[in-house]
């Protein structure tokens, strides 16, 4: 928790020194920014400057939603434990977004408080928070080395419910690939530094470094009399390096190397472990191309080697197809890679995720989106560990969004999820349905 706090604080300082664009997805809303000091914002000259669209702007936001949740603990049924599994929940999320641009950098800092109030289970009421930043330093790096690009971004999230799936754009995607942990307070963060260098108009070199953590705070007892299923803290360091070559217009090929080290801490239940660590080396080839003007495809097969006895090669792939029309867009993707499990057992899993989404703009004010995800995460086939461990999850969702007025939108969303967890001596299945009406205001 302390590491994540300092990394996020450093990112904020970097952004305020000059900084664009990052939004972590949380289960019931998008982000904003912590309020700035009132003394600065209260000045009439400052307000006029910001209102005129100056290089520094603060955009307040407010989101209010009412939702029905069929499984408020995001976990198996507690049977006769006496707690009602379904509830109506009111979510209130004030926040803001700050943007800044100067001759050296561009940046965005967002922050949001998340307060939820339960009708039948007021003991579950909570206040959480999330924030994220992106700093694009291309203007500065280009002055030092022509063709050099640099970007720093980060996300921090304090929330009692860790979602099974998040959007592919989120920096926390590595931690949420169809594994639904039970409700428990947690703080997680992801910080990434990315660089690129254009050797010439045809060749580009890329590299990145990422740091991710998840810390579970205490253990909540909701009357579950079943076998304890611990949650494990984890820390991940990752690095990548690669080269891309423009073969012909709209066709690019590339090769890359990646390294990731994941360390697990102690669990939240009685059956805790000592510190355990996995390292994964990977190589991959990439081919991306654009065709028929509206279609874009990407295929990146590769191999990974987990440095754990016995060492074993594991095939990976990251493939996606996107179509963008005048009013409609669609995307499908499939990824297979080695990712950590932080629930039930600290282990390295073969993670397979298929996802798809379709968005249709009915008019300038109406938009409809549907999506689906399917994930199978299993230790079978990784060569790591002697016991079986398997997570399977299916999720479908849909939303209708209406622009009530400039800066004010209303959305009706719904989702259904099925989860299966299998471990020696433990197998259970449960589902969850959420329906929500949301009003969002942005004073831009």
Q: What would you say this structure looks like, in words?
A:
The protein is mainly β and 444 residues long. Helix content is 8%, strand content 59%. The protein contains four helices and 18 strands. It has helices at 2-17, 38-41, 44-51, 138-144; strands at 56-69, 87-101, 106-118, 126-136, 148-159, 186-200, 203-216, 232-248, 251-267, 276-291, 295-306, 312-324, 328-341, 347-361, 366-378, 390-405, 408-423, 426-442. The protein has an 18-stranded antiparallel β-barrel. The longest helix is centred in the first third of the chain and has 16 residues, at 2-17. The two termini are 33 Å apart. The model is unreliable at 1-53 and 269-273 (pLDDT under 50).
Overall, the morphology is: globular
Give the tally of β-strands: 18
Q: What is the SS-derived class?
A: mainly beta
Report on the biggest sheet. Answer: 18 strands, antiparallel, barrel
> What proportion strand?
over 45%
Low-pLDDT parts are 1-53, 269-273
Terminus-to-terminus distance: 33 Å
Task: Please work out how many helical segments DSSP would assign.
Answer: 4
Strand/helix succession: HHHEEEEHEEEEEEEEEEEEEE
User: Average pLDDT, to the nearest integer?
Assistant: 82
Helix content: under 10%
Radius of gyration: 23 Å
Concise synopsis of the structure shown:
The protein has 444 residues and is mainly β. The protein has helices spanning 2-17, 38-41, 44-51, 138-144; strands at residues 56-69, 87-101, 106-118, 126-136, 148-159, 186-200, 203-216, 232-248, 251-267, 276-291, 295-306, 312-324, 328-341, 347-361, 366-378, 390-405, 408-423, 426-442.
């Amino acid at each position: 928790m302390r590491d994540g706090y300092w990394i996020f604080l450093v990112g904020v300082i970097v952004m305020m020194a000059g900084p664009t664009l990052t939004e972590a997805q949380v289960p019931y809303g998008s982000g904003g920014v912590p309020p700035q000091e009132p003394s600065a914002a209260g000045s009439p000259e400052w307000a006029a400057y910001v209102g005129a669209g100056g290089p520094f702007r603060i955009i307040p936001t407010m989101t209010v939603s009412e939702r029905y949740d069929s499984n408020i603990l995001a976990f198996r049924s507690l049977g006769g434990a006496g707690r009602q599994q379904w509830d109506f929940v009111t979510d209130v999320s004030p926040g803001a977004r700050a943007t800044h641009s100067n001759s050296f950098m561009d940046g965005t800092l967002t922050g949001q408080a998340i307060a939820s109030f339960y009708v039948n289970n007021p003991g579950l009421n909570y206040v959480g928070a999330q924030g994220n930043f992106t700093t694009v330093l291309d203007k500065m790096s280009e002055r030092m080395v022509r063709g050099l690009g640099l970007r720093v971004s980060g996300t921090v999230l304090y929330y009692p419910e860790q979602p099974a799936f998040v959007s592919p754009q989120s920096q926390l995607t590595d931690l949420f690939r169809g594994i639904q942990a039970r409700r428990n307070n947690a703080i997680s963060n992801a910080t990434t530094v990315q660089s690129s260098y254009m050797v010439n108009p045809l060749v580009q070199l890329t590299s990145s470094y990422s740091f991710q953590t998840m810390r579970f705070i205490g253990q909540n007892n909701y009357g579950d009399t079943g076998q304890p299923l611990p949650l494990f803290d984890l820390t991940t360091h990752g690095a990548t390096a690669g080269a891309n070559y423009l073969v012909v217009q709209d066709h690019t090929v590339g090769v890359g190397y990646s390294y990731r080290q994941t360390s697990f801490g102690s669990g939240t239940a009685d059956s805790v472990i000592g510190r355990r660590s996995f390292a994964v080396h990977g190589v991959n080839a990439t081919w991306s191309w654009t065709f028929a003007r509206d279609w874009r495809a990407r295929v990146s097969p590769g191999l990974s080697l987990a440095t754990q006895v016995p060492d074993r090669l594991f095939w990976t792939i990251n493939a996606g197809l996107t179509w963008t029309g005048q009013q409609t867009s669609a995307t499908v993707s499939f990824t297979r890679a080695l990712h950590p499990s932080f629930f039930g057992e600290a282990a390295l899993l073969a993670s397979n995720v298929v996802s798809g989404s379709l968005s249709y703009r009915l008019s300038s004010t109406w938009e409809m989106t549907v999506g689906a995800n399917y994930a199978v995460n299993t230790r079978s086939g990784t060569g790591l560990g002697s016991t079986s461990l398997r997570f399977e999850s299916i999720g479908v969702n849909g939303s209708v969004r209406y622009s009530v007025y400039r800066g004010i939108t209303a959305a009706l969303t719904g989702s259904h999820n099925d989860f299966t967890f299998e471990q020696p001596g433990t197998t259970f299945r449960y589902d969850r349905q959420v329906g929500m009406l949301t009003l969002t205001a942005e004073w831009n």
